[in-house]
Write a structure and sequence with these properties.
Elements: H1 9-19, H2 29-42, E1 45-48, E2 54-58, E3 70-75, E4 97-100, E5 103-106, H3 113-127, E6 136-141, H4 149-152, E7 163-166, E8 174-179, E9 181-190, E10 193-195, E11 200-208, E12 213-214, H5 226-237, E13 244-250, E14 256-257, E15 261-268, H6 272-289, E16 298-303, E17 310-312, H7 314-326, E18 330-334, E19 342-353, E20 358-367, H8 370-386, E21 390-393, H9 407-420, E22 425-429, H10 435-441, E23 446-449, E24 454-455, E25 463-465, H11 466-482
Parallel strand pairs: 3-6, 3-7, 7-23, 8-22
Antiparallel strand pairs: 1-2, 2-6, 4-5, 5-25, 9-20, 9-21, 10-17, 11-15, 11-16, 12-14, 13-15, 18-19, 19-20, 24-25
Length: 484
């Protein structure tokens, strides 16, 4: 069986087609072309803007002409993460999907169900002529994952609808009416080099097989951060060993909790065996510390092939390690307004050495309170300034303030209750959605977000629960039938 054999067949067929089109963030040219070709093939009116967003329109069915248009919104880009032992080219290779029990997964990479399954639902609505619905505007935005570029740059006149259904949520049975805003804080740490000390042996320290996940939705789940773990060991090792640091590399994406990191470290040859044992002992201690949340955590040491000729100066190495240890990471505050909701958080997303003798450290802050979001960014900025770094902030994006009195929400709740004889949860989410930016451009919009169940998003463990796709589809179809 392949995913094309699953039910509802129409939505799974569209999802399968989407997985075959490469669509990394900021490199969405192929999926844009595919969407335009889809509209042309089926005779739909469509529009693109200078940013790359695509709207495909379908007229209302008979008897629904006087109802307000509904916008079905999803983003076309996907997070591109893979296991380190997997060969895969996200710019050219199709995602290799598989069915594993009750879930659809990919072979060693992210699946792209975030937000490919939302795209598939919108396309299925466009194709299914048996449905009853008002005029449909299917909006597909670019670059949601790395900067919300599409939502920021949404062109004039792209939308006319009154209601917007965001199809980018990950928990079936939950309706989202608010989300956090976010901002990225990036530091560049200049360092000097010196010749590698004589008589030193160099090893590669690795931490891997962490679960990772979404830096908003998973930040409160007690997951380990590979950058913090490796920095923590090296910071402690400075008290016992005369270490020399040649490289530190961990994480990739600002919105993913980092799963892997490595460092190339030298110690006096006579201390090498002891150093390696200490690292593996540290690994055992971390496995115990995170035994409830990180079942696959792995620590490894291997010799470095070839000669290491240069290392960071000791002062710069110490400053870097102090900075990485000092940086806050994880939940900073829980919400008093919405019990159980993370209000403010930060993620130490990646640490990279570039070719200009700089370490680039990328962090991401989120909050449902605008002032708290800015203060979190200032907190991170302050640590970087103490280390002498150059610091830049992204433009950031606004949160989406909940409107519990929305008529669209009331209709969606009623639809869910009637379909499934149970009450959906209505809540806000700590992850970022594009809705806040849409509301700035179109203040009249009423919005709700829902989707099937996804887990492990932004990691190679990303998976989509098959049974929830049917419920997602039925809710969307019924909402379009009754909304006024």
């Amino acid at each position: 069986m392949t995913i094309r054999d699953l039910e509802p067949k129409l939505i799974w067929e569209q999802f399968d087609d989407i997985t075959k089109v490469p669509r990394p963030s900021k490199k969405e040219g192929k999926i844009i072309e595919w969407l335009v070709a889809f509209a042309q093939k089926h005779g739909f009116d469509y529009q693109t803007d200078a940013t790359g967003n695509v709207v495909i329109r379908k007229a209302a069915t008979a008897g629904y002409e006087d109802r307000p248009a509904v916008i079905l919104q999803s983003h076309m880009d996907m997070v591109c993460e893979k296991r380190s032992d997997v060969e895969f080219d996200f710019e050219n290779d199709p995602i290799r999907t598989k069915i594993e029990g009750e879930w659809v997964k990919a072979e060693g990479t992210t699946l792209g169900a975030d937000c490919g399954i939302g795209m598939a639902a919108a396309l299925a609505v466009l194709l299914d002529n048996s449905l009853e619905h008002p005029a449909i505007e299917a909006l597909f935005t670019v670059d949601e994952e790395t900067g919300l570029t599409g939502a920021f740059g949404l062109g004039e006149g792209m939308l006319t609808g009154k209601y917007l259904v965001n199809l980018d949520s990950e928990d079936e049975g939950e309706l989202f009416i608010g989300c956090a805003g976010g901002i990225d804080t990036v530091a560049k740490f200049d360092y000097d080099l010196e010749p590698a000390p004589e008589g030193y042996a160099f090893v590669r320290l690795q931490v891997g097989d962490l679960l990772g996940g979404h830096s908003g939705d998973d930040i409160n789940k007690g997951l380990a951060n590979s950058n913090k773990l490796l920095a923590r060991f090296l910071y402690n090792a400075c008290d016992t060993f005369q270490i020399a640091l040649a490289k530190f590399d961990g994480g990739n994406l600002r919105n993913a909790i980092p799963r892997e990191a490595y460092a190339i470290v030298g110690v006096p040859a006579e201390s090498k065996e002891d150093f390696e044992e200490r690292y593996l002992e540290f690994g055992q201690m971390m496995m115990e510390e995170f035994k409830h949340t990180e079942p696959r955590m792995r620590f490894a040491v291997e010799d470095v092939e070839g000669e290491v000729s240069e290392v960071m100066t000791n002062d710069d190495m110490c400053a870097l390690l102090i900075t990485l240890v000092a940086l806050p990471n994880g939940v900073l505050a829980m919400s008093f307004a919405v019990p159980g909701l993370v209000e403010t958080s930060t993620n130490l997303a990646s640490v990279k050495f570039n070719d200009e003798q700089q370490v680039v450290i990328t962090t991401s802050q989120r909050s449902s309170v605008e002032s708290a979001k800015l203060y979190a960014a200032q907190t991170i900025e302050s640590v970087f300034y103490l280390a002498g770094c150059d610091v830049e902030h992204s433009d950031g994006y606004p949160g989406w303030s909940p409107n519990p009195d929305s008529a669209l929400l009331a209709t969606t709740v009623e639809c869910y209750r009637n379909l499934f004889a149970t009450e959906p949860k209505v809540r806000a989410i700590h992850a970022g959605l594009e809705c806040g930016l849409f509301l700035e451009k179109y203040p009249h919009l009423e919005m709700v977000s829902f989707g099937p169940t996804l887990r492990g998003v932004h990691s190679p463990d990303e998976r989509l629960e098959i049974a929830t796709v049917d419920k997602f589809w039925r809710l969307l179809v019924e909402l379009l039938r009754v909304v006024k």
